[in-house]
Each structure stands twice: as structure tokens, then as C-alpha cells.
Amino acid sequence: xxxxxxxxxxxxxxxxxxxxxxxxxxxxxxxxxxxxxxxxxxxxxxxxxxxxxxxxxxxxxxxxxxxxxxxxxxxxxxxxxxxxxxxxxxxxxxxxxxxxxxxxxxxxxxxxxxxxxxxxxxxxxxxxxxxxxxxxxxxxxxxxxxxxxxxxxxxxxxxxxxxxxxxxxxxxxxxxxxxxxxxxxxxxxxxxxxxxxxxxxxxxxxxxxxxxxxxxxxxxxxxxxxxxxxxxxxxxxxxxxxxxx
Length: 245
What we know:
mainly alpha; Ferritin; DUF305 domain-containing protein; plasmid; signal
């Protein structure tokens, strides 16, 4: 009796192993049929090889975006979600706070300055360098003013807020090192700075309506007007310089 049971068990194990092997082989076959390649498609490899001998060959989409840089939608986050998250940054627990606004806007401005400094070195069009100079000048000045207000109102000019990945994405912030590698650079800069500006506007609009401090309201109004104007400029340039998207 035990011999028959053992034989049946061994037979079942054998059938299971055979089935697993068949499934693995079938999956590999499907990958082969679909041209799946963990190392990248053949077309991308051919394009990369061609570029090594001819720098004029256009980069792939991944390379154009700086090796995975988020781009306009920042990792697929819809702009309305990014705007909502930006507003939440200045409304902890659903209530507006000047301190939260300052602590969110200062690192946001610092990120814009870093991106603009890259543009001063990498931009192809003088228009991009001009807007980058304006960003550096105006936002450094606002960072200084925020520090003065924070020290006066809260006893310290330094923010104690730690930015996590979700907050960074919500604020449209990008890695300047990745931006510097993107080609065409001016297109990548526009595609990164527009959502960055949009998140700043979302936060500033809340502050403009809710703050009781005239200085903060004035800064918020300046942020909205300046960055709306720069968005309009950059959208026009993008359409003019890169009509195919």
C-alpha cells in the first residue's frame, strides 16, 4: 500500500516539474516573439552605436530626458494632482500657515535657482539664459526676504522641514544633474520649469488669499505674476522651437 502511495506521489511531483518547465519555456518563447529585451530594444542599441561614431544622431527618448528625468508630468503625476499636493504643503491639517508657506517655498525656490544655474551654462537659446538670469535674481531675493520674515516671526531663519520624495515631486522639483545631461537641453528645461512654476503658483495663490502679513502677500503676488508670465513665454518658445513635441 505504501509502495503504491509513494509511486503516486513521485508521479505527481514529476508532472508538476514538467508543467513548470513547460511554463518557463513558454514564457521565454513569448518574450522572444514579442522582442522583449531587458537590455533595451535593438533599435535603441543600433541608435546608440550609431551615435558613438556620429554625434549628430538624435538621442533616444530616455536619453533626451536625462536618463529617466520626470519631464512635464513628473513621473506620470497629473498636473491637477501636483497642484493639489502643492496647496496641501502650505495647508497642514487643512489650515493655512505662513510658516508652512515659507518652509515650502524656500526649498522650492532653491530648486529653481539650481535648475536656472544649469541653464546659464547649458542653454542654446539666449531667451532661456535671460529667463534663467531672472529666476536666479528674483528667487534669491525672495529667499532672503523669507528668511528675514521667518526669523522675525518664528525666531529662526532656517526651515526645520524635511522634504520627502512625495513632497519633492509635488513641488515639481528635478535633479539639476539629470537636467544638465538632457538633450535638447532647452526643451528639457522648459518641460521641467513649467510644472515647477505651476506648483509655486498653486502655493502662492493660497498665501495671497489667506495670509495676514502684508509682506508675504506681496511676495506671493510677485510669484504669481512673474511665474505666470514666464510660463507663457516658455510655452511660446517650446511651440516655436519644438513644433513636433
